[in-house]
Specification:
The longest helix has 44 residues, at 24-67. The protein contains seven helices and no strands. It starts with a helix and ends with a helix. The chain is mostly helical. It is 80% helix and 0% strand.
Length: 164
């Protein structure tokens, strides 16, 4: 419609200049483009951080479990059941996740002023967002703790004790 509108205006007065005509939607989109880019970039980086956190939790729990292979073997020889070993390793991983979630919540609350300018119709301390994010991280982190714990229940005590 812009060329038609220009022609109509010039039919009335051909001396009227018209520069950079565009629709309101295009003007709003152009104005919001930098914020959209920053928000998209932050979303991608947050997703990457989420994946790295999950891999990191798995790696830490797996490494800690591997370091305790001999202890787990001794526990099995002394009479510890697979359920006890699972509970031991899983609870330690879950405790690490709990501490990490608490530190992360404190960090996110401390960073509210930085993020507040990028949010639209959402408070940086929105309880629903904080609870949902915490729940999502916990739901992903607990299986990352479970897999090494499950692997620890399959430790052969003879192999674990001979490892030295």
């Amino acid at each position: 419609l812009i060329p038609t509108l220009k022609q109509r205006i010039w039919d009335v007065d051909p001396t009227l200049p018209m520069y950079e005509t565009s629709t309101i939607e295009a003007l709003v989109s152009q104005t919001l483009a930098p914020r959209r880019f920053i928000t998209s970039l932050l979303g991608i980086l947050a997703g990457l951080a989420f994946v790295l956190a999950t891999i990191g939790i798995y790696g830490i729990v797996s490494f800690a479990t591997a370091q305790r292979t001999r202890e787990i073997g001794v526990r099995v020889v002394v009479g510890g059941s697979a359920r006890d070993i699972l509970r031991l390793v899983f609870s330690e991983g879950a405790m690490r996740v709990g501490v990490g979630v608490l530190v992360g919540l404190a960090g996110s609350l401390a960073a509210t002023r930085v993020v507040a300018a990028l949010l639209y119709k959402t408070s940086p301390t929105d309880p629903l967002t904080l609870v949902a994010t915490t729940a999502l991280l916990t739901v992903v982190a607990l299986p990352a703790c479970y897999w090494p714990a499950r692997r620890a229940t399959r430790v052969d005590p003879l192999v674990a004790l001979r490892s030295d």
